[in-house]
């Protein structure tokens, strides 16, 4: 991946979207089409893999005539979840969340100090504090966003499930092929990506096919949000 230097910080120089006049070979399953995928094609989609640059025909077509719209692609990077959790533990960024349990269903391995009577129904319910893998990952990511003064959605950038040759994969999604609303600037995104790479917590920024909304959308269907 090429870099350019600015104020001593390396910035990625790749453009994530192909220009309209660029023609290049695209996987047959990702070529423009006017029908949903068959069951056999669905099984093959996992093997397509993420795209470094998005072909222009996979952008939504804003036209008056009805056309089939492309599947949802997220722009982001695969999460190295175990590495992120290691940094969270070292830096005191682990997050615990509170859940309500029936007294009779509380696991025996939960320490008593993590259990308190429920405020409204203390006779049957208790509140249990426990480690949250998801919230810890978000907290680590949000901390870096704040330290680097990154603008945009910040902590609300979602974790999404996408397709990959390894099966389903979790990524941080910055925007989609349908919307760039509140996306970080190119400079901020490059800086954050470089920082995450340096700590081994994030991979290459790529376009990933959504694992739950991977089919071509019929004409007139609602455009999805991030």
From TrEMBL:
Q: Can you tell which superkingdom this protein's organism belongs to? A: Eukaryota
Any idea what this protein is called? Uncharacterized protein
For this protein's source organism, the top of the classification is: Eukaryota, Fungi, Dikarya, Basidiomycota, Agaricomycotina
